[in-house]
Design a protein that fits this description.
heme, alpha/beta, binds iron/sulfur cluster, binds FE2/S2 (inorganic) cluster, binds nicotinamide-adenine-dinucleotide, about 800 residues, five-stranded parallel beta sheet, FAD, FAD/NAD(P)-binding domain, binds flavin-adenine dinucleotide
């Protein structure tokens, strides 16, 4: 049967969740294309607050990585905006001229932040908080400036303010109303919240109406309607959102605040649907993921031709994601008229709880200071169950305190544990018993619970403990390799060695993986571990590698590639430079850039040209894409510098030639400086060398990236040969004991510097590590050369396979 063409506009949370639901029920019905204006694969927008708070990175919050699209045969166009829908021809056009026809079209264009229409809103330093670009802008500003003003004291504004405080800025929240989070909290809870956040260092200006943002080029201060001002050099506008309906409106679909949809998410025009924040159902456009995911489920069934109950709207609950503050709000929480409130206020411990009833039905709740019962109350609100007077009062007791009973234990099977993804206690218990999910990650993989805000993780953990007893304690104390197995990395490696397992599939079969194919986390990890354990016999599985490693180049936003040839020790010559210039001209490179690792990146090469570019360069691969040694940065050293005490360039080149190509758990960067002035920045490298009088100091575990870490002193040696011996042993020890994707900075903290030192300083162990490394090095080949000389690889990788 010919597949129907399904086009999704908007690569965000609601749209991609709908596609996941479609794939789960009818994998082969559609040929799917997703078009997203942002340059990234689908990421968890909710966790941008955590990225801003410095707790995590874009990689960590990616929900569906590039490989997921490829594995599911989804064509993904990023950095493209759909600007036109031809309803009659059933065709869309993007801003770069791509046209695509569709049988079914889903609009999931999300929302746009509301920008106050005041003078100065377009000044430099004024931003919103909606996407990764905004988050990057705030992260960058925090490195240069000190004073931030956040306009809007809602959920978003407060989470932004907390993030900026974490980044070391002075933060003032400017709020129009009398109470913070006025859409979610009553006066009592808002007052407690303000006090708590003030303790954390946040400042507030309430009942302040901003009339102007003033500055020459960049913002300098805010002006308020009462004539007062506030000095600031960063302004974050968080004053609400409006559904993004521009495209739908221009296509003539019926719109109001959002795109009008019926109970099956159908718009006013056949075969066009809307889902997520852009959709308006019964007069409501939602701004939280739980209702959007509910919509996605209904739409997936509808579009796949399955019978479905109609979408009848959602009751919502919210939780603020600021550490140290527990706030929960759900339903109709303001009393008055027939809505009667039941409240407790423990002033000493700063706990406030309120439930609002209509007759015997719970219709709303606000919790401050202790929000453990939040999801349970939310379940009751959703079910509109009758609650007796005794239960009413018992709901306000601190469960788990006096009685010893846990909240989770007392929940009924159909009560919701994960509000974002609508997953009940019963579903999780079933996954534990029937799918043998025994960790929070396992539950996430089996049911999606905890995949969004993560607020339910502690309840899931508790439920696992209650359901599995001792067995959970055993599995909880270890981190599993991935959600396909309950075995830890060490247990898997032991089994590979003891049972002589030689292939990724064999490992999965013999060790009882819960999935037949594994996942994008375990496949590359197993490929690495097997290669490390059996350097001579294991045949690398290219298809288990991430796309950059598979193609030996770095894929860029626009789908072209960056090519970085090796320049040992950052030293080059006119011949190499000429070749790079010729290749750049011939293959229309878009940019030549000197990298931080002292070499040249040739950007903008098309995939099919890569083998020809490598051949014409005739230089080794710089592995700028690899989990292996990247570069050895060097200073000019004693050869030219009057401060130099050692020959840093020769040592750097020797180290790079010795350690290149062989795989490691993550990338490995090195540097050699010839004196303590440290021009090569040896203090922030995985292995850094500093020349001193009479020898070299060796520093380890440094990192100059997201998690900045100064390297620790490993030791001091006299000769360059000793440096090479120590560095090789250290690298091999990391290869053998590191967890796949663990940088040495984290590895060192996990293993303990003293323990690592004890191994590396032991002459016997150092020698053995060097010998084992030698074996691994003996079979390495330059991958570019290998591909150039293989017609099979060239055609498989660069002609047939879609990236
Ligand atoms: C910092 C932050 C924290 C949040 N925290 C929470 C929370 O704790 N709990 C919660 O429930 N919700 C939270 N939310 C809200 C939640 O993230 C959103 O409700 C959800 O992401 C909306 O999903 P969506 O797919 O409708 O829109 P989006 O995720 O915004 O996706 C829409 C996508 O469509 C793209 N697009 C738009 N127009 C076009 C076009 N014409 N062509 C191509 N692409 C287009 C956009 O670039 C965007 O990538 C938070 C939001 C933010 C910003
Ligand atoms: N934890 C969470 O669930 C979470 C976190 C972040 C964002 N979100 C969602 O993201 C969306 C955007 O959040 P938001 O906080 O911007 O929206 P919001 O509408 O909830 O809050 C905006 C706040 O700004 C205030 N405001 C309006 N005009 C103002 C002005 N001129 N000056 C000062 N204050 C003004 C309002 O009184 C309101 O409290 C919402 O849908 C929200 O639910 C949710
Ligand atoms: S690290 Fe020392 S030797 Fe090397 S360039 Fe800097 S000052 Fe000169
Ligand atoms: S409650 Fe948000 S992920 Fe479960």
């Amino acid at each position: 049967m010919e597949k129907r063409r399904l086009v999704l506009v908007g690569n965000g949370m609601a749209g991609v969740k709908t596609i996941e639901e479609i794939l789960a029920i009818s994998k082969d019905q559609f040929e799917i294309t997703i078009i997203g204006e942002e340059p990234h694969p689908n990421y968890n927008r909710i966790l941008l607050s955590k990225v801003l708070q410095g707790d995590t990175t874009l990689d960590d919050i990616t929900l569906n990585d590039w490989d997921w699209y490829e594995e599911n045969n989804i064509q993904l166009l990023t950095n493209e905006k759909v600007i036109y829908i031809d309803r009659e021809e059933k065709m869309i056009t993007t801003n770069v001229g791509t046209t695509l026809t569709y049988d079914e079209l889903i609009l999931a264009t999300g929302s746009k932040p509301f920008i106050l229409p005041i003078p100065g809103a377009d000044l430099e330093g004024v931003t919103t908080f909606r996407d990764m670009k905004d988050t990057d802008e705030m992260l960058a500003a925090s490195k240069k400036y000190r004073k931030a003003a956040v306009i809007g004291g809602g959920l978003l504004g407060l989470e932004a303010a907390r993030g900026l405080l974490n980044l070391g800025m002075d933060v003032t929240v400017v709020h129009l109303g009398e109470n913070l989070m006025d859409r979610q909290l009553d006066e009592a809870a808002a007052t407690l919240l303000k006090k708590e956040l003030e303790k954390q260092g946040m400042r507030f200006l309430l009942q302040k109406n901003t009339t102007e943002i003033v500055g020459q080029k960049r913002v300098e201060f805010l002006k308020f309607s009462d004539g007062e001002t506030l000095m600031c050099d960063l302004v974050v506008m968080a004053v609400g959102i409006k559904p993004n309906i521009d495209l739908a409106k221009s296509a003539g679909l019926k719109t109001n605040r959002g795109i009008i949809v019926n109970d099956f998410l159908e718009t006013s025009f056949p075969n066009i649907y809307a889902v997520g924040e852009c959709a308006e159902h019964n007069g409501i456009a939602y701004g939280l993921v739980a209702p959007l995911f509910e919509q996605g489920k209904v739409l997936a069934k509808k579009i796949s031709g399955y019978e479905t109950t109609p979408y009848k709207g959602s009751v919502v609950s919210t939780q603020l994601k600021v550490s140290g503050v527990e706030v929960f709000s759900a339903g109709d929480f303001i009393e008055g008229g027939e809505r009667k409130a039941l409240k407790v206020f423990d002033e000493q411990d700063g706990i406030y709880k309120k439930m609002v009833f209509v007759g015997k039905k719970l219709v709303g709740a606000v919790l401050f200071g202790d929000s453990k019962e939040g999801n349970r109350l939310f379940s009751m609100i959703k079910k509109q169950a009758d609650i007796s007077d005794t239960v009413k009062v018992s709901l306000l007791q601190p469960i788990g305190g006096d009685s010893g009973e846990s909240v989770v234990a007392s929940m009924a099977s159909d009560e919701i544990i994960c509000g974002c993804n609508g997953v009940s206690k019963g579903t999780i218990v079933q996954a534990i018993h029937e799918q043998e999910c025994t960790s929070v990650d396992g539950i996430k993989a089996c049911t999606s619970a905890s995949r969004s805000c993560g607020g339910c993780k502690s309840m899931i953990s508790e439920l696992l403990e209650i359901t599995l007893g001792d067995q959970f304690v055993a599995t909880a104390s270890k981190e599993t390799l991935c959600s396909c197995t309950d075995l830890s990395r060490d247990e898997v490696l032991d089994a590979i060695r003891n049972k002589k397992l030689m292939h990724t599939r064999e490992v999965m079969n013999v060790l009882g993986w819960s999935t037949s194919e594994g996942c994008s986390k375990c496949r590359p990890a197993l490929n690495y571990y097997l290669g490390m354990i059996y350097p001579l016999d294991y045949e690398d599985e290219n298809e288990s590698r991430y796309v950059n490693e598979r193609l030996h180049a770095n894929i860029q936003k626009d789908g072209s590639f960056g090519v970085v040839p090796r320049m040992y020790g950052g030293v080059t010559n006119s011949d190499q430079l000429r070749k790079i210039a010729d290749v750049a001209d011939k293959y229309n490179a878009k940019l030549l850039k000197i990298t931080g690792g002292q070499r040249i990146d040739i950007f903008g090469i098309e995939k099919e040209d890569l083998p020809k570019v490598w051949e014409e360069l005739d230089m080794p691969s710089g592995y700028a894409y690899g989990k292996t040694l990247r570069t050895v940065k060097t200073c000019v050293g004693e050869t030219f510098c009057r401060f130099g005490t050692q020959d840093s360039m020769s040592l750097g080149i020797a180290l790079e030639k010795r350690l290149e190509r062989v795989g490691s758990p993550h990338k490995f960067k090195m540097a050699v400086s010839a004196c303590p002035r440290n021009c090569a920045e040896s203090g922030i490298k995985d292995f850094g060398v500093v020349g001193v009088e009479g020898g070299f100091e060796m520093y380890v575990g440094g990192n100059g990236g997201t998690h900045l870490r100064a390297a620790d002193l490993l030791g001091k040696v006299k000769t360059a040969d000793e440096v090479i011996e120590y560095a090789s042993a250290y690298f091999q020890y990391y290869r053998e004991t590191g967890i796949y994707l663990e940088r040495t900075s984290k590895w060192l903290e996990r293993m303990g510097l003293d323990n690592i030192k004890a191994v590396i300083e032991n002459p016997k162990q150092r020698k053995e590590l060097n010998e084992r490394l030698e074996v691994a090095l003996s079979v390495q080949q330059d991958p570019w050369k290998k591909i150039i000389h293989s017609e099979k690889l060239k055609s498989e990788l660069f002609e047939k396979v879609k990236v």
